[in-house]
Design brief:
This protein has 126 residues and is mainly alpha-helical. It is 67% helix and 0% strand. The chain has helices spanning 9-38, 50-89, 105-110, 118-125. The radius of gyration is 21 Å and the shape is elongated.
C-alpha cells in the first residue's frame, strides 16, 4: 500500500472549518487584549482614592504588560492559523515539512497550524 501524499478535499474542508472557528475566536480574544492594553474600557484610577491609587496603578502596569505579551502571542497564533488556511487552499495542509508524510489528524485537531509530525518535532528537540 502506498502512503498518501495529502488529505482528501473532504478532510481538508473539515480542517478548514475547524481553523476558521479557531481563527474567529483568536481574533476576538486579540481584540479584547488590545482593549485591555489601550484601556478603552474606561476603567482607570481616576475615580480611586489616593490611598489605593499607587497600588492600582502598579497592578495596572503589570496587567497591561502581561496583556501586551499575550496580545503578541495571539497575533502570532492568528498568523499561523491564516498560513494554515493558505496551505489548505494549496492542498498541502497536514504534510510534515521535514518528512513529507501526513501529520496525524489527532495532532492537527489539537494544533491545527502544525507543520511537523510528532516524530519530526521530537527529533528537533533532541
Amino acid at each position: 500500500m502506498t502512503e498518501r501524499k495529502r488529505y482528501t478535499d473532504e478532510e481538508l474542508q473539515e480542517f478548514k472549518e475547524l481553523i476558521t472557528q479557531k481563527l474567529a475566536k483568536a481574533k476576538k480574544d486579540y481584540e479584547t487584549l488590545k482593549a485591555v492594553i489601550s484601556n478603552s474600557s474606561g476603567n482607570d484610577t481616576e475615580d480611586t482614592s489616593p490611598t489605593f491609587k499607587v497600588l492600582e496603578e502598579g497592578a495596572s502596569v503589570l496587567s497591561k504588560e502581561e496583556a501586551g505579551r499575550l496580545a503578541q502571542r495571539q497575533a502570532k497564533f492568528i498568523t499561523h492559523l491564516e498560513a494554515a488556511l493558505i496551505r489548505i487552499e494549496n492542498k498541502n495542509y497536514g504534510v510534515c515539512r521535514e518528512t513529507g508524510n501526513l501529520i496525524s489528524k489527532e495532532r492537527l485537531r489539537a494544533v491545527p497550524h502544525a507543520t511537523l509530525s510528532i516524530d519530526a518535532k521530537n527529533k528537533q528537540i533532541q
